[in-house]
Amino acid sequence: MIANFFKRLTEAPKDSLQGEDARLALCALLVRIARADAHYSDAEAAQIDRVLVGRYGLSPFEATALRREGEEVEETAPDTVRFTRAIKDAVPHDERIGVIEALWQIVLADGARDAEEDSIVRLASNLLGINDRDSALARQRVTARS
């Protein structure tokens, strides 16, 4: 299953990665950020579930199942670029700031920012066509809602 996902991710023509594959790519990116500081906390896992419920209208059970699948994908993924490419192809530019806000929700879920987490958010933002200023504003909105 994971091998088929990576095959679709690397061989799919532009704009063909949709639905569940795009969701799985975002989920794996969220897990990658949560694991970036070498401490994947229960708070971060729960926040990923909340993001998935809110973004995709999943039930809590479905969100947990998707997160677990995302954890498996993230473990075997060679780089972050593949996830962001899939997300960029599937999410219109004007909706990508919501993706960045989701990334910041995970970074801030455990109450501490880490340089590795910040680095992945910066990379993902740039690859998604979101500048540093807009990413910082997204972080501020997430912080204000917390």
Automatic annotation (TrEMBL):
What Pfam family is a match for this entry? TerB
Q: Co-chaperone DjlA N-terminal domain spans which residues?
A: 23-140
- Report which superkingdom the organism of origin falls in: Bacteria
Instruction: Read off the SUPFAM superfamilies from this record.
Output: TerB-like (SSF158682)
| Protein name per the record | Tellurite resistance protein
Question: Origin organism of this chain?
Answer: Shimia thalassica
User: Could you read off the lineage of the organism from its UniProt record?
Assistant: Bacteria, Pseudomonadati, Pseudomonadota, Alphaproteobacteria, Rhodobacterales
